[in-house]
Amino acid sequence: MTMFSSRNWREYPHRYRLEASKFKKSGKTYFPKRMVDPETGDTEQETVNLPDTGKIVTYTVIRIAPGQWGDQSPYGLAIAELTDGTRLMAQVTDCDVEKIKIGMEVRIEFRRVQSEGHHGVLSYGYKFVPKWY
Length: 133
Prior knowledge:
By secondary structure, the protein is mainly beta.
């Protein structure tokens, strides 16, 4: 019997609530959360929720996908800069891959990401959706 991955349980706060670390000294926000600011060594932080909108700064189109996502290809993967300056990578969905552009405004939506094992346990996470959708 396949068990639900413990990794999924650890990732719930950032995957489901978009929780990030904002460090006191630098004011920088990191996602997923970090214990130590890589630039300053600061450990004093607060948990913040990321905004759900931003703009694509770079992207790629996956035309030959790994096995578990083969039925979704072609699909876009993008890095978007959110309105607070944090950058996040996610799949771009609900649009033709030929319409994905740098500067395109997106919002983050909670969606099914994959199913795990032969029992089909579902994993959820965030994806980018064009704001015009």
